[in-house]
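Work Package 4 report. The design task specified in the project plan requires that, given a folded chain encoded as structure tokens, an amino acid be chosen for each position. We show below one input record used in the internal validation round.
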């Protein structure tokens, strides 16, 4: 019997390694506009996002947004948007990637309290759905179709 990787490779899925942190979060490296960063892979987050402090780092153009963000114990947070960015996860690329920008300090505070490293942002369900994602928790791989 063929293994999962062989089957998905034949179907043109790209394999991306992730790590599991001390806090049981999935940690993945991502490039936004050619700049690498650390992100939580979060199947429960509707949109991918970065913190306000990472706007310049990832060369994104922040625009006004009427959307209020909520999650990880915080609600009604001010947000901005950045559209038409480039995202790369391993060999998988998205050339028209939209990001929500908001205050990630509550997420990073929680991580550092548990001796985990802070992150630049979150890769959410928007990317996972676009890439028809398959998460292999046993082997720590994310598969995305391109």
């Amino acid at each position: 019997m063929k293994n999962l990787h062989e089957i998905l490779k034949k179907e043109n899925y790209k394999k991306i390694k992730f790590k599991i942190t001390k806090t049981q979060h999935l940690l993945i490296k991502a490039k936004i506009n050619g700049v690498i960063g650390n992100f939580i892979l979060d199947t429960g987050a509707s949109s991918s996002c970065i913190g306000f402090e990472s706007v310049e780092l990832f060369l994104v153009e922040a625009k006004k947004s009427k959307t209020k963000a909520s999650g990880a114990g915080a609600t009604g947070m001010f947000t901005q948007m950045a559209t038409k960015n480039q995202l790369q996860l391993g060999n998988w690329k998205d050339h028209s990637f939209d990001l929500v920008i908001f205050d990630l300090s509550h997420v990073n505070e929680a991580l550092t309290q548990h001796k985990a490293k802070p992150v630049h942002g979150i890769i959410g369900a928007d990317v996972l759905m676009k890439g028809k994602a398959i998460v292999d928790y046993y082997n720590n791989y994310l598969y995305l179709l391109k």
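The two ends are 25 Å apart (CA to CA). Validation will be extended to a larger panel in the next phase.
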